[in-house]
Amino acid sequence: MFLALEMGKIKKTEIMKKLIVSICISVFTLGVYAQEKEKQERTPEERIEMRLERMKTELSLTKEQESTIREAMIVRSNEVKKIREAHIGDREAMRKALHPVRMTFHRTMKETLSDEQFKKWQEMNLSRKNHPPKNAKGETRKELKRSRDSRENK
User: Do 78 and 96 belong to one domain?
Assistant: First the structure.
């Protein structure tokens, strides 16, 4: 009889452990899902404001610089959107069409920012290129594209 009671306690503790672990996994999974969904729902205007906020703090922008850069970012965003829609599937043509847009934005930034601010802005852009954004699994966009392409070629 004593053995039967012990077996019951062991089973109950194992069941409780499994229940707690499964609850923790569920909560973690929902948190990750909510973060991914939140990232995807940003509009171009929200992305512009986020970049501008970062630039304001790191470059100490004046109100005049801020408004000029905001307008340049909006124009660039609209032009990039049009070019991407026009060159779907032709990556090389899209790159060539985007080059003047990038150069125009670059010129605007150079004219708007002081020499010190401009150098810091260039460093910010280089650091962003050297550390591309990663998804929840830690994969960069290039890695995701490679894995997607390899699956499609099979």
Answer: yes
